[in-house]
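User: Predict the structure for this protein chain, please.
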Amino acid sequence: MNTNKDIKSLIFENLLWVLFGALGFACFLVIWFVMPHKQQIDSIWHVVFKITSFMFLILSISYFPNKSKKAYLLLLLPLLGYTAYLGPRISYYGFLEMPKATETTFSEYYTLLYLLLYPAIIMSVCFAYRVGGGTPGNCFKIGASGVIILFSGFLDLMWYLVNPVGIPEVIQYAHHIKVIIGHYPTYFEGIIFCLCHIPLMLLLLYLPVDSWFARLFTPKNETVSRGVSLGSD
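Assistant: Here is the predicted structure, written as structure tokens:
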């Protein structure tokens, strides 16, 4: 009996998702209780830390065991989370606190909407894909693609198109773009910034992530070809 192989199998097949989840949750606690809740970004490292935290959670979902026939019932947990916390909190700030227009309520509303709700939607989609039989690599691709879409500035551009506010010369609230290029982008610069993320998205989708993950961890009775293919894996 190969003891080292057995130990590695035990850790990677049963506890890897827990390890990534614990790291992601620890980072989330720092973001929620230590880092300031505000729209402005003081440092690029704040963005890096938040993305790292999110990717730890995506990796946890990617490695979540999905062999149980009743695993689909776990999808009720995100729905309960939206109903029990996110929905009530966001509607409270939107309907009652935001009309007061204070800096604190604006920052809290922004944090709930963009730093909690959007990641929760992405993780719910990844979780649904995983428990439905998706592979770890493709699950990771879905989550990472969601991050790319958010930080590409696509949301900032569409905000001015779907709302009756007109197209501005400068996008004043694109703080994550400002911290990268050094100034608030014009609307045209925002379009260029967004388009530059398309090659990154395509590269991600065609990377053999499942093959790479298989070198570290392959769940029992699962092959890298299982699930919906999102690229060349």
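Residues 221-229 have pLDDT under 50 and may be disordered.
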